[in-house]
Amino acid sequence: MATARYRGNRTRKLTTVVGPIEYQRACCHCKACRQGFFPKDQAMGLDASAGSPGVVRMIGQSAARESFAQSRVWLHELAGVRVSTKQVERTAQRLGKQISDLERGDVALESPPAQTLYRGVDGTGVPMTRQETEGVRGKQADGTSRTREMKVVAVWQCDRFDENDHARTDRTSVTYTAAIETANSPALATELAPFVKRVEREALRRGFYDADTQVVLGDGALWIWQCFAELFPQAVQILDIYHAKQKVWDLSKVIYGQGTDTGRQWAETTIEILRAGQIEQLMAILKPFASMHAEAETATGYFARNRKRMRYAEFRAKGLSVSSAVVEAGCKNVVGTRLKRGGMHWSKAGANNIAALRSTIISNRFDDFWYDRVGNS
Which helix (H) or strand (E) holds 23? Predict the structure, then answer.
């Protein structure tokens, strides 16, 4: 027995890549769900937006790179497609949500695992609406926050590096995923936190668990190492050498003053010891200053906690990269370039949707997503 009833024809105005069109299609009503629907729209892969699949794809590609208002301008000037700023926003948000929903589902192995795979995590603040930061502690003078941290997960291959620790990353191997999520340790939670699930899914998708050598890189934040230790106990943990170097430079300014030759010479000498992985000697150099400067005491504790992750000479002898520059680039390219422009204030859902859309494009996954969404319609 039919569960849908024909309710006559309806006219629809549709924006396409060759201009606006109007067409008639049948309107049906589903008895079971009590909702109206249009079979022809479904057959052609049209959603609730006023754009054809071609226009929707163009909007997604543009809005992942530019503001919604600028995307509207570019679509008109470069393609002759007239859409409103609100339509650009709604369409891009809808695409991002579809990608986010897919990312929370089952994932398949994208390609055979590499011999050595790297992964890293970092966070960067995204400007949010006032409602999204209520009760969130931050760095403002009154203890409030204007941002929420978006965590960026990166996986990549890197088989070469030069004498200056500049990694020769295979750019085609880099993939990103990012969202504003909690990072509770799985050992302390009844269920895996959303962020931890994201890290696991990306590991499965990239074959990280099956790589002969697994390497995780971080900036020294405790939550990163806790997460990695529980999820990837076999992985080699490496503290990003640039963060370690920056600690030394910052300390030299505290001890010897800003821009002094003595401070510069001390920092350069200390960094050579750091690069050699001579952590005990490094600790001995810092010890006299720990009682004189609070910053030196903090730095000493930082290096002490991470001493096993700072065996840089040993790591490089094994052909491993010691830089998490790929993750830093992800924070800028995935998040900063699009979500942190002047005057922008996001909702959590909105920021996550656009981050998902942009990550998919930067990671060269958009075509696969698009085929699954439209190709079989």
Answer: strand 19-30
